[in-house]
Please model this.
Amino acid sequence: MIGPELAASAPWWAWPLALFIACFFLGIIAVPAGVGGGVLFVPIIASFFPFHLDFVRGAGLLVALSGALSAGPRLLEGGLANLRLALPFALVSSVSSIGGAMLGLVLPVPVVQTALGILILAIVALMASSKDSLVPKVGEPDALSRALQLSGIYRDGKTGEEISWHAHRTPLGLVLFFFIGIIAGMFGLGAGWANVPALNLVMGVPLKVAAGTSSFIISPAAAFVYLNEGGLLPMIAAPSVIGMMLGARVGGYVLHVVSASAIRKLVLALMLFAGLRALAKGLGIWN
Amino acid sequence: MELNDAFAPQRRYARWLRWSTRVATILLVAACVVYVSGLIPPHVPIARLPELWGLTASKFLVAEGLRPGWSWAGQLPQGDMLVLAAIATLISASILCLAAIAPIFLRRGERLFVAMCILQIAVLLVAASGWISR
Model:
């Protein structure tokens, strides 16, 4: 947070305007970096804006959700998202995200802030070291995967090749998505950062299908909890969502002209700084 | 024909999602303009926000005489509550989409997926209802 004196002396419109501009830029870099908006939004806005963490997490969930909703139709129609695959995991993570949201709202702020800092640093480590597998080699599908027919065919846009896939380790996936839901609800992060590796590396779903399907596992259940508990402040939520949506549109064009790996490094550096800041704030070292 | 098409639920979901998200986004932008312009006065005066946005969500509700749950809807059509109504519309979009695809699964005899759609709708409605408020 910026110093309390500066925060108090600024006119009311200065912070929402700064928030809108910040979200616009976060939206621009989120697309080429291949991360959802929520995972950037929460640590950065919580660290540098005078808003309570409750409102930042509520807006973070909305940011993640609105990005997923607006990209959803194209992903479904293009076969890069698989609804059959999303439904069981969305159900599990919906239930657990409600618990996560309620837990986040009752825990003391320094505890949540410290945990947020640790989580963001862990996500940075995961993103920096993760070796995604474009089309993983998968063994036989498990019984649950067969019963739910968690399989499909998608056409690779670049090569035109039709790739057939099926999921395995479905029970382990359900357990993982239960915990992902808790974390997503508690910190308002969305969950693409965890959904994609869980689907791709654990369940053997091709990377593109995992990334597309991930949007449909982000549940609105936790956002309803924040709405009911007063955690959605219109002056924070609206500029965040609109700024991020506009920025994401520009980000789609930026993707063609700027090196995605350079943007990804920038995002990792930003998240590393925001994670350290959240940790220091939670531990009372840097307020 | 829809019964034999493996992607029918997916396509219908996409169609409903596209329209519901478009409507909700337009509502959100319109409500935001009304709120910020002061066309309809808000429940919480905008100039007071800097005193309030540093409070916890529960203290904010107390300060503004609101209760957890849907008490904000009772303050409609005040400007800030219009924004909340638009947000509620946006986050309800997937409920409509799930309700739209459940009959396709039912006609195809895919009972597991019908049950999942119904359960997911039930979970979202419980979360939306505020029954599990603190």
Observations:
- Chain A touches chain B through 63 residues (CB under 8 Å).
- DSSP finds 13 helices and two strands in chain A.
